[in-house]
Amino acid sequence: MAARTKARKRALDLLFEAEQRGVDAADLLRERLAKPVTEHPLAELTADLVVGVSERRSEIDELITTYSQGWSLQRMPAVDRAIIRLGAFEVLYSPDVPENVAISEWVSMATELSTDDSPRFVNGLLARLAEVKPTLA
Prior knowledge:
The chain is mainly α. It has helices at residues 3-21, 25-34, 44-55, 57-67, 78-93, 99-113, 118-132.
């Protein structure tokens, strides 16, 4: 697994864990940076993704709610919420990552970690966000 893919997976793990525990993802990140639970330090990309999603969470959630036809955030599986939030952050706010690469990475994560229907849903929603990105101010 490539280093960037591993960093994305660790960001996903942190967002998912934070939601399950009912804690702020940025606080959990700070905790893990201060007291790592593995021998491998968190990658800078992991931290950037978690902080980015945390800082823009309400904006990201509003866009997800607007463009996820027929699916409320609460109705989505928890892992899909985390994948879509991270994917939306990369698609919308990471100029160094091509949109198609970000979408592909997060669809791959959904394929590996979620339901059979999740990859198609993640792909459609992230592609729609990429499509409307120029209209967002």
